[in-house]
């Protein structure tokens, strides 16, 4: 496919980029008589091989065999030297290793530590699972196919390879979108209840169901074609390349443009709220603590989203340009451009664990625990504490003072009262908003005007940090 790994256009373009015109010509000359749609696809395939002037006039009619041409006149310009293959193999191998192990560690950190099981982190588990799966089951297979233009993995895996990448990327991007919407609701409208664990699981399940439905045509129309000396895996649409192109434009809109637009709007509003609404002067410690924690989470997720957008943009541009200007498939360096754009898109699966480790202290503590067997990794007592149950967060005032301000009982002696038996009366102090415990009194009025993003009865500092 044109927009996601190993989906239709990938298999098409990969085979187009690395096709051996000699083998194709020999197969067609031996009497291959493809149907109309398949003949058009094979015609593009032969064009991609950059045939010589004499062989480019084959024409490949839909129901007649192509005239034979001497193989001496056919050249495969996409054969790469061994050193270049080794470099590309190393680059793709690093992506797969870091993405798979990094995301598996992220999943372990969240599921194995009760303190990490928040709404946001459940979506991060879904995101990590999608990225690890795509790296494990898609990246190297597509790289091998793009490099050799030979499908070694059978018909069933051909269908899976064209189906699963769209599913995984859809799940990844909409997990990020769900996090953005959840952050928006928690910060802009904190008085509404947060998603429960059950509701979060329902949202994640719905994301996967929609992903399966979107990718199903890729599985339905996938096929392999066995030719003399060559096996191809591709998606043959009933109405030909135009239908194929339309489908993948829809996919690009649904898995790239629309979710990025939603996240751009939500994070812009959240950013303006968090970075533009701080109360000047001496305000409560809890306000500053929550504001700082919320900013860290939002900043981390913005970096994740921007990284995804940058990594996938070149590949989407590549697909659109090569689909519109098909002569680009005959360009001498088009295979290198494809491999580079494909590598950048796949590398998006390995950056998230690195971002979490660098920008979140609890994930950093979790990675230290995972790699504590390394001689240069030391796990401190503070790191151990970060992953345990919620810690007490001290403020400037003592905990006793904070409690007595929230709910205190004061004994007041009134000498003017004639009844000595009632000389002592208990008056309950007016309860204060617990979200402002520890705030200075002179700023309590101004602080109340910004309570919409300071705290909520459904959130805590522990959830954001």
UniProtKB/TrEMBL annotation:
InterPro entries: GPCR_Rhodpsn, GPCR_Rhodpsn_7TM, Neurokn_rcpt, NK3_rcpt. CDD domains: 7tmA_NKR_NK3R. It comes from the Eukaryota. Residues 414-465 are annotated as: Disordered. One of its GO terms (cellular component) is sperm midpiece. Residues 445-465 have a biased composition (Low complexity). Keywords: Cell membrane, Disulfide bond, G-protein coupled receptor, Glycoprotein, Lipoprotein, Membrane, Palmitate, Receptor, Transducer, Transmembrane, Transmembrane helix. GO terms for molecular function: tachykinin receptor activity. It is found in: Cell membrane. Residues 102-356 form the G-protein coupled receptors family 1 profile domain. It holds the Pfam family 7tm_1. It is a multi-pass membrane protein. GO terms for biological process: positive regulation of flagellated sperm motility. Disulfide bonds join 158-233. The chain crosses the membrane at residues 85-111, 123-148, 160-181, 202-224, 244-276, 297-325, 337-359. PROSITE patterns: G_PROTEIN_RECEP_F1_1, G_PROTEIN_RECEP_F1_2. Belongs to the G-protein coupled receptor 1 family. This is Neuromedin-K receptor.
